Amino acid sequence: MKTLNLDTLTAAFADIETITDPVQVAKLSQDYHTFSPVLVPKLAGKVGDIVVRPANEAEVIRVAATCAKYRVPVTVRGAGTGNYGQCVPLHGGVILDMTKMHEILWVKPAVARVEAGVKLAALDKKAREIGWEMRMAPSTYRTATIGGFIAGGSGGIGSIQYGLLGDRGNILGLRVVTLEEEPQIIELRGDDVQKVNHAWGINGIITQLELPLAPAYPWAEVIVTFDDFMTAAKFGYALGNADGMIKKLISVFASPIPRYFHPLQQYITEGTHPALLMVAEPNLESLPGLVQRYGGQITYQKPAQDTGKGTHLAEFTWNHTTLHARTVDTSITYLQSMFPPDSSLQLVEHMYRHFGAEVMMHLEFFRVGGAVIPGALQLVRYTTEERLNEIIRYHEAQGVTIANPHTYIIEDGGRKVIDPEQLKFKEMVDPYGLMNPGKSKVLEFNIHK
Ligand SMILES: Cc1cc2nc3c(=O)[nH]c(=O)nc-3n(C[C@H](O)[C@H](O)[C@H](O)COP(=O)(O)OP(=O)(O)OC[C@H]3O[C@@H](n4cnc5c(N)ncnc54)[C@H](O)[C@@H]3O)c2cc1C
Fold first, then answer.
1. Nearest CA to 396 among 437, 335, 346?
2. Residue 35 and residue 334 in contact, taking contact as beta carbons nearer than 8 Å
3. What mean pLDDT do residues 71-98 have?
4. Which CATH topology does 6-97 take?
5. pLDDT (mean) for 332-351
6. Most Cβ neighbours (<10 Å): which of 43, 108, 288, 300?
């Protein structure tokens, strides 16, 4: 990297909004890697030099050209809710905050096009006006941006119906700006969108996205409790496979996790194991039959007309579960796992019994390759990094896939290896290796050239 001169940069950005106040810059250099006691010390003190907030694509192009010219690292940022330090700049430079680019360009039946900084909840609201909604959203849908979700997330509420973001068809188009002295604008469609999906901001600056929408259902929210965890898990799996029932969320928690859900205490008797559900309202009539078969009890039901009022169950699920637990006990951390499809849920039961109170089971059911599988974001009572790694290795040895949230290296997390197509694309869109440098093992760290 050439010597960074802030004055040169700010002069080059001229009328583009910038932030240089060190406190603000430090704040905007953070994300939610704080859920990991392993990442916190590794990322301590890593901050950008300046935050730049483009209002449109023309400004993004100017920032990209300037950063390429002066070989300045660029960390693109949405809302900064990522969990792996994806938004933390390892080598300073520009934090490119995309939140001012929040225009919903158009919404048609079944498809929408947005700027990257649009919040998921904003698109959902707009789409609902014409009877459609987002296919899936993370539990951070109120704050997270769509660009950040595609570049950093994987799936969430809705994935039980539509699979994960990486599944063919869940992203229709992406427009990226390259990090070159003369930046290009590239529109990716079809399978090419995978070159940027979950690439952690190393493969071009996403300025626009085109996403498929789902028919909007009236969603009822339900809590069902069970005396036995494995029965609750089997109920979740059965509901996941009940193809006639449209659902958006099936989350199952082993006691004592519900203790961390303060607003839900009155609906979850101490010692019971709840399933938190979002089910299409017309299917509610079919739910009690299945609940009875598994000996559960419906303790809470919120009709769709009350959506938006009071507590929203989705905000206790996915990684919000970890958030609630950590609000009470900061020594708790988490894992991200995918169990193999198996109707007997044997491996889930094995892990549940093997680790007991040390690894509390939190299941999220979703579809992978057409099959319902139990994913898990287990809560771990953290002691040491060695013990955490031992727990991870034990899971992997038994056939559980772990997307390790305690690393900021893409290949050591969920990806394991970077897709060669992504690497080829990287060479083209970021020839100087300036985008989020240091986050991939295979990429030559060549910002000195
Ligand atoms: C409590 C909690 C719950 C969560 N639940 C879920 C969940 O259910 N499912 C899930 O998948 N994730 C979840 N996450 C992780 C995260 O919230 C989501 O992935 C979210 O969609 C990220 O959006 P963001 O705008 O905050 O992205 P950021 O954190 O700002 O960015 C994420 C990554 O994308 C890159 N990026 C951002 N914008 C662009 C752009 N325009 N162009 C190129 N690269 C870009 C960044 O460089 C970074 O690498 C959760 C996190 C927390 C803290």
1. 335
2. yes
3. 97
4. 3.30.43
5. 96
6. 43
pLDDT of residue 443: 73
CA angle 113, 16, 20 (to 5 degrees): 115
Give the number of residues written for the chain.
449
Domain(s) of CATH 3.30.43.10: residues in the chain: 6-97
Report whether pLDDT(2) > 70.
no
- In the prediction, which pLDDT does 418 show? 77
Please give the number of the atom of ligand 1 that sits closest to the Cα of 320: 1
Query: Does the beta carbon of 98 sit less than 6 angstroms from any atom of ligand 1?
Result: yes
Tokens in use for 110?
């079944």
Which ligand 1 atom is the nearest neighbour of the CA of 151? 34
Mean pLDDT taken over the chain: 95
At residue 383, the pLDDT reads 98
CA distance 24 to 413: 29
> What sign results for the dihedral spanned by CA atoms 61, 63, 67, 73?
negative
| Residue 273: φ, ψ to 5° | -120, 110
Instruction: Round to whole Å and give the CA distance between 408 and 393.
Output: 18
Could you tell me the pLDDT band of residue 38, with boundaries at 50, 70 and 90?
very high
Q: At what angle do helices 346-355 and 229-241 cross, to 10 degrees?
A: 150
Task: Report how far ligand 1's centroid is from the alpha carbon of 97 (Å).
Answer: 13
Backbone angles phi, psi at 236, to 5 degrees: -60, -45
Residue 380, pLDDT above cutoff 50? yes
Contact in structure between 331 and 380 (CB atoms under 8 Å): no
Question: Could you tell me if the CB of 118 is within 6 A of ligand 1?
Answer: no
Topology of 104-215 in CATH? Answer: 3.30.465
- Look up the CATH architecture of domain 219-402: 3-Layer(aba) Sandwich (3.40)
CA nearest to 98, candidates 8, 204, 172: 204
Summarize the confidence of residues 383-395 as an average pLDDT: 98
101 close to 207: Cβ distance less than 8 angstroms? yes
Reduced to 3 states, what is the DSSP secondary structure of residue 172? coil
Amino acid of residue 354: H
Q: Where in the chain is the domain with CATH 3.40.462.40?
A: 219-402
**Residue ranges matching CATH 3.30.465.10 in the chain:** 104-215
Dist. CA 67 → ligand 1 center (Å): 23
In this model, does residue 446 exceed pLDDT 60? no
